[in-house]
Amino acid sequence: MTDVQTRADADNPAEPAGTTSTRRVxxxxxxxxxxxxxxxxxxxxxxxPGSNPNGTDFDSNPVPAGSTxxxxxxxxxxxxxxLVAASEVAVGGGVIKGDYVITQxxxxxxxxxxxxxxxxxxxxxxxxxxxxxxxxxxxxFSIKDGQPTAGPATQPLPETKVSLDGDNVVAA
Length: 172
Hints:
The protein is α+β, with helices and mostly antiparallel strands. It has helices at about 25-40, 70-75; strands spanning about 80-85, 95, 100-105, 110-115, 125-130, 130-135, 140, 150, 160, 160-165, 170.
């Protein structure tokens, strides 16, 4: 049996000289194309100073897992957003709405805190006798300043500045 190989020369007019497509060239081209696609997909757009490589803003004071709204709003991200009608918040008590616990420790004085417990990230579930309660591990927080008053939590609930706008409590 004879091994026949073709060459790109005058004997083979179908392939001009210097344009042979060998299996090696095809495989190398495909590999280079694949590597380029992978590198492009892994690249990030550094959003400038103060940004993480993944494009999100960096915050050196994070809140527990699951909490997003209160931290963003405390930086002024949703200023003017209505959180609750003032008439829904009892004096000496509060309500849980969206991502917040809104309290009225004294008549006309409103506070808002993240509803996410700082112990292990459970949502607080009730306001009772001047305390914000997390039933996951029985932590309690003051309706006045969000400071822990009982339980394993040692950090206060993150506060969002609020103001009264007409009949509504709004993020300041």
